[in-house]
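Anyone up for a design puzzle?
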């Protein structure tokens, strides 16, 4: 379990952030009331009153939270239509695991993940999304050897080194591709390879000498045979 510790903690943090954002959206923003009015009202169902007031006072009212909320709202205005998912608070990983057969050992392609997370009902909601799906298919057909990560980076022109477009929040490149070796590890592997090559070269030298001697003997025998 230790090897999954960091991944699980990051997922828990993501769930906590999404949950507190949903509380604010459904109980303050959508009701068009102020934080002060929400503070004096009853807490949402299932939430302790002390916890609700702590969230309003320490989280929602903080300057850092307000800045992040304003920045995210501005970013959503320019968010491409073809990237808007329609799974709500359901994580992409849950879609991959339950809906696309991940729990039975299947490894769904990016085209299936994109369609399942962007569809509205049984069809795609707009032309932009349909075009992006076609682009994913074309990229897969041109080079079947590409991984899901490589296809996503080509189709969506992703420059992020942290998140992978098309796999939902919380999924990083390292989770799909695996950890890249460090510079020290690469240098150690290179030095080891050089040593092995040197050992092989040292072994080849006496073999080459024996080969040359053998050629000389064969040449001598051939000369004697010609004389006879």
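Challenge accepted. My sequence:
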């Amino acid at each position: 379990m230790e090897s999954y510790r960091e991944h699980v903690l990051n997922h828990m943090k993501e769930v906590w952030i999404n949950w507190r954002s949903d509380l604010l959206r459904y109980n303050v923003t959508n009701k068009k009331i102020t934080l002060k009015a929400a503070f004096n009202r009853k807490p949402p169902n299932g939430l302790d009153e002390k916890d609700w007031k702590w969230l309003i006072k320490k989280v929602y009212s903080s300057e850092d939270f307000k800045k992040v909320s304003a920045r995210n709202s501005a970013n959503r205005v320019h968010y491409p239509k073809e990237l808007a998912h329609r799974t709500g608070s359901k994580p992409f990983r849950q879609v991959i695991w339950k809906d696309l057969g991940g729990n039975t050992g299947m490894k769904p392609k990016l085209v299936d993940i994109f369609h399942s997370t962007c569809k509205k009902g049984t069809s795609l909601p707009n032309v932009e999304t349909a075009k992006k799906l076609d682009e994913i298919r074309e990229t897969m057909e041109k080079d079947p050897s590409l991984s899901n990560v490589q296809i996503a980076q080509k189709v969506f022109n992703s420059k992020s080194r942290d998140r992978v477009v098309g796999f939902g929040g919380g999924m990083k490149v390292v989770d799909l591709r695996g950890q890249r070796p460090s510079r020290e590890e690469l240098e150690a592997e290179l030095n080891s390879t050089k040593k092995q090559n040197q050992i092989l070269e040292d072994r080849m030298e006496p073999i080459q000498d024996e080969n040359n001697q053998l050629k000389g003997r064969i040449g001598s025998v051939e000369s004697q045979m010609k004389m006879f």
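A detail worth pointing out: The longest helix spans residues 183-227.
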